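User: Can you fold this complex?
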Amino acid sequence: MDGTEVVVASSPVDAGISCWDLQSGAEHLRHRSCASPPHGLVCVADRFFASSQLRDSSSSSSSGSIFYWSWSKPQVEVKSFPAEPIKPLAANREGTYIAGGGLSGDIYFWEVASGRLLKKWHAHYRAVTCLVFSDDESLLISGAEDGCVRVWSLFMIFDDLRREEAGHLYEHSFSEHTLRVTDIVTGYGGGNAIIVSASEDRTCKVWSLSTGRLLRNVVFPSIIDAIALDPGEHVFYAGSRDGKIYIAALNAVGSSSNSYGMHIIGSLSDHSKAVTCLAFATDGILLVSGSEDGMVRVWDTKTRNIFRIFKHAKGPVSNILVVRRPNDSNPRNSQTSSKKHGSFLSPPLDKYLNSSDENEDAKVFIGCQTTFSKSVDASYRSCHIIIDQIKELQQQGSSAATEMEMERLKIDSQKSVQMVQQWKKMYENLHQFCVNELLDADHAGVSN
Amino acid sequence: MVRNKASSKKQQKRGVDFKKIKRKIGRKLPPPNNATSTEIKSKAIILPEQSVASEKAGLAVSKKGLTLKELLQQTSHHNPKVRKDALIGIRDLFLKYPAELKLHKYAVMEKLRERISDNDRVVRETLYQLLKSVVFPGCKEDNQGPFISMMMAYIFNAMTHLAVDVRLMAFKFFDLVVQHYPPSFSLYAEKILQNYEDILQKNQFYLQDKGKLKNALAGLVRCLTLLPCNTREVVSSFEENLAGQRVLHAFEPDLPKDPAGFDLIIKKLRDLVPVLINCFHEFIPLVHATMHLDAQSFDCMLYILQSIDLAVRFFVYGTGKSQPGLCSSIHPYEGPDMTMWDQDVSPVVLKKLLVVFPLNQRHDLSEKDGDRYFILNVVITEIFLHLSEWSYPPPDLLEIFLEFIENALSGKTSSAAESGKAFREKHLLSLLPFIPKLVSRVSRNWSLRILQAFTKAFKDSNPESSVKLACLSIIEEMLVPRHGIPSLDASDPEILGHQTTWIRELPLLLIMLGDKHPSYSKVVLHLQLRLGQCALLNSAVAQEYDNMQYSLLEFYCTCLEERSMFYGPFIKLARDSQELSVCCLYYFSHLDSSLLKSIAFCCLCDDLEPFMLFRIIEVLHSAYKAGHIQIADHISFFITLLSRFRVFPEEIYTVMEGDKKMSNRGIFKSVTSVVSSCLLQMGEDSLVFQILEEVILDQMSLRPPIDNICAMLRMLLLLDSRPTRLSDQSVINLSSFLSGYLIDVASGIPEDDGKSTSSIHVNTCHYYFLPCFLLFTRSEKFLKLTLDVMGSLITENGSSPFSPNCILNATDHTNRIRAIVEILILMHKDVKIQRILSSCKSEIDHILQNMLLLQASKGMNMSIEERHNIQCAFDRLKCITSTLPSATPII
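Assistant: Here's the predicted assembly.
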């Protein structure tokens, strides 16, 4: 695997984005000026961060803001201003799309590489509070202040005909929560997965995506603000406002014998203040939790002990991410790369739907899997990006084109070096062989 | 003996003259006169078992002492009376020994089924009763499939029996089977429907007796209700599952509905419906001829209509074709069958059935007849509405029906009598679910008229009636947009008018329902919550929703004056309803301070569960965070809570703190901590502090009990910083009554008697002193002022100026002095305070002086014990002051 695993945290007060190495505990570069709401920070394909910003409603009349940071620079690199304040953000694993939930209940769907607003639809009656992609990234699941959890199929959203036939956009609409939905996690298995939603009504509910039914309702002693699903889906962890992280069973048949309530089998507790966010490390054992007191704690879920504590800021922590930091962006060549990649990050996100060219560009192609595709981001993109890049390549003038050329030359030289080494080795082997032969012959001659 | 005599006589004769006796051949001698017949004749008497003599000790017997085997044999006896008795015997036996039935049920059924086509009416009736009351209920748990199938062949046989009575009885038997084993209908649907069709077609020959026709039709209705036509049932069974607490990843067997039989059923029903309509038509002349409608023919007509209704429903919903004009090619059943149904049955229904509508709308009918016609009309309307889901009806016909619906809703057709009204309401229930669709489809004029009538029906109906409940669900459907169904166009002012009327009715309804009908209240609250959730969709509705809070005051609590509260139904509702109503609060875009006040009083009510109290705080804080409550209102809510909460018992040094029944101090402590964590999240500490300072000082001047003061002080300190943010004026105010507070707390400490309790007391004491001590460390001036006040209190006459509520007033000087010394000693023990104390030596000296003064002036009036106590206190104080480090070196 390339890159080291890092913990990334941000807060709703302006305390920047801090990164720590999960294993060593060393702190990386701290990115500046970020005030993100819960679920408002995403790492787009491990390349850069995107975060929606909390701004005073009075100062910036009606538009919201989404900022981008690259790994190597502390300053905001790209600023975009969508039509209304955006709170939750979600990006798919490859970093092709970013989805954002607006204050009015609209969901915005952008293409990262071009910044185009591909779709915008009215999803909820009140502000959207959380957005997640399902495991196979064909479904988008949103929760809102009105207590509704809705499941959207991306196919359906771009398929006008079927949408009209069905009469509604969503696949499922779960409205059993009575208050604001605070967090949603999805399990594995794409369309057959389970999802768990937490709400201010003190419950977490487990839903089946395939049947669209409520499978389980777990009532907690306090409001749950964050949930994390165990990779084996045996239990889920629920960070509550009373400072504990409750462990609720998914597989076992519920028993109400314990002190917390039905299905709750234990708790992790050290936080003096409310737990605001949770994330699992990739090993599935370390659980990272952010708290209202500004601390980030790393728990070992096997032993239920604290493994490490980071201090983020004085204010509360609102977002925690565990991501892989790519190796190539170490500080040594960051200077050169940032200079060279002046426009490396994607363009800002569009404010409005651009209806004129929507029809011709709605198609999506699979990018060619060349050797240098890694440096040129993801493999899915809409055709007009490809067209642009082809143009650039033809003109041989643009920065991206030279960069690709560079990349190719580098690989060439690498190959040549390898070849040279191979030759060397062969030569040495041959030399050794000949010497041995000669010696043996000599030896035989002497003995004879 | 006789014989011996005779032979001896013969021998004597022969001996006399040896005369040969000549005998003629072929002739027998006549028997002698005195001969005794020696022949033995016997007849066979077959006694398989003698009932009296046989061994029956271990066997189950009926009342007449017969075993099951005997009884079963007797069921095929040629005498009907014996058969009947045998059946009654079986019944007795099974009632007595239920286990016997389980053991022998197949054997029993094998015999009993033969009696289904028995020629004797009484035997059939007895069998029917036997099956109904004993056999079927007894075999409920077992696998009934094979058991039923044993019977079915005989039932079908009976259905084609020559005797009409047997045939009709067979339908009755089948009805019984279906009642106990519903799947049997779908298994045999085709045959059954065929049989019904046959018998109904020839009804003029067979069914002159309306009673029999009625029975047959009742069975048909029951069968047809088993067809999958009820969309609502699916929903309800789904909701039952919601509470399902099962294993998540378990394998779920899904049972696809076997649709193979649908084709056949559709075909049969298509034939059956015209027959039913013909049947109905035979009653029409009767209706027109006479005004009076007798019960029998009414029942028949009703059953016929219901059957047609069910058949139509099956076609419209059961086969998955509910949208007119929507040609989805997904469904397999709308092939040729559906189109044929469309072609020949729908027009028949329209032409023959619906044209007779409305039946006898004359006004000179008696009330009973009027009601009967009303019911029939309602069912016909239902049929019409189901049909119109499917194909658009001719407009003139639609008008007639719309008018009927309007009249029915607004109660114009109903008689004035109260009983009649309730009766009609019951039947309205079936029409109500159509209203949302109807309103969205018909012309604006008509939809307004219907809405008008609906609103009237909603307002007029009894709060506890099922019509009200149904109306509520209709309102939800019309206000809250759902899948596919377009909600009402709220831009139309007249529709909006109706919507506001409904919304305004909700809080009133809640108050009217009170706590007597918890399930009804829950429905209303649920609707309210849904409304709140989607209120933003439309500004007018949101406005109405916000206005609702003023009428909700009464639901929570109203207070006319200080201390006289009228708690609304909220307090007494079940916990889930309470939670719902609290959740509704979150969705008000602006929570009015009057409502907050009313909720605060509810929170202070002793009857409210602590769980609900915490929940209310939680939800209100969420609402505050979402910007629905103003900061000043929110803070004053908290302060009200803390300052008015009644802690019992007031004695603070009780040992049993954990016991909730004895004391709610523990709850109050956790309320304090919850409120303080909320306050910390409210924003800039210094700003919140400024708001708090004034309010808390105001509240403290009212001298609440110790616990409340302590809680408020803690609040204040939480937001305070070091050095204190308190203004000079408030420091002076605060110090004057905090000294009193300290004395009150300290004077409550009982004399030391045992070590174990005293440590608890010190802990308790510490809880109350801590906020004051913190204040002292933050402001030296505050300590000085407090000590000054204490000094002056020593010499002051009269009772304590502080806390009239407190039981343990430091009324007399001795107690007061003891308390002050206790406080100083405690301060001295605290390292931080000790350091500050050293700078206040002059104040302590002042206290000592005052004590001496007191001794000098009042010493004469005191008892020796009192004087001794004061002296002790004086010495202790002296002792610690001497140990105090001098002020200068430290600072």
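Chain A has a mean pLDDT of 78. The domain at 4-329 of chain A is CATH 2.130.10.10 (Methylamine Dehydrogenase; Chain H).
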